[in-house]
Amino acid sequence: MKRLSVIFSPTVIVLGLGLMSFSLTSTVAYYGGQAVTKIWKPELFCASTTHDFGTIDRTERPEYTFVIENKGNSDLLIKSVVAGCGSCVRVVEYTESPIRPGHRGSVALELLAQNLFDKVSKDILVMTNDSKQPILTLTLEAEITP
Questions:
Q1: Fewest CB atoms within 10 A around its CB: which of 24, 50, 76, 144?
Q2: How many helices (H) and strands (E) does the chain have?
Q3: Nearest-CA neighbor of 135 among 145, 124, 121, 146?
Q4: Is the pTM of this model over 0.70?
Q5: pLDDT above 80 for 68
Q6: For residue 39, what are the β-bridge partners?
Q7: What is the C-alpha separation between 39 and 69, in angstroms, rounded?
Q8: Tens digit of pLDDT for each residue in 17-55?
C-alpha cells in the first residue's frame, strides 16, 4: 500500500524590482516515495486593459472601473495604482484587501478632461504581487471637445 505524507515547506523566493517584490511558497507532498511540489502564487487577469470614452466635453469627468480577477491559487495583492499624469487621471479607489483565488477586485479611475484636449491616451500602472505580471498597464482614451 502506498503512503501519502505532506510536508509544508516555506520555500520563499523574493525578487526585488524597485518598489515591488513578490514571494512564492511551495508545498511538497510525498506519494509512494515520489516528491510532488505545488507552487502557490496569484495570477492576475484583466479581460480589458483599455477603455475608450469616445468623444467627451472638457467639462466632463467620466469614470471607469476595471475588473481585476485572480486566477491563481494564492491571494493577489494590488500594492499601488499610479497614474502616469496625476493632473489628467485620478485614482478614485482600488481593492486594497487581498483578492482571494477565483475572486475579483477593481480599479476605479476618473479622467480629468478639463486638463486635456484633442485625442488623448493616458496610462495607469497597477503594481501587484503576481510574479509573472507584477505591473499591469491600464489605458484610458478619449477625444476631448472644447
A1: 50
A2: 0, 11
A3: 124
A4: yes
A5: yes
A6: 26
A7: 19
A8: 444 444 455 555 566 667 766 778 999 999 999 999 999
